[in-house]
Amino acid sequence: MKKSFLVLFAAIAFAFASSAQGTVTEKMEPGVANLMKRFVEINKTTTAVKGWRVQILATTDRQRMEDALRQFEELYPSIPADWVHAKPYYKVRAGAFTSKQDAMPTLYILKRDYPAAYPVQDNEIKPEELLK
User: Fold this and answer.
1) Distances (CA, A) of 76 to 69, 80, 122
2) Using one digit for the tens of pLDDT, what is the confidence trace for 119-130?
């Protein structure tokens, strides 16, 4: 009895689901619509994303920073590196990753030559810089 009731119920539910129309109407208040439009406009003009890099050096000596960057580019030509100046430090950073987890394999590779390397968050990564 229970089995026949379940089969009948499943058949009715299937028939009802297959006959339902697939239309969805969206009702949005004008204020919300304006906010969404503004959000889209702002995001279209944003050229940088948040991500992670591996910092291999922070020093106050510009010459040391330039030497470290040159050495890094010779050792790891396939990993892009650059420097930033956040007074009073010059920081050499390598790679560009979407998450900290993505940066970790590169960090472990770089630790052989740069034992003080560590992951840092960067809010100014261009999307084309991101490493896969």
Assistant:
1) 10, 8, 21
2) 999 988 888 888
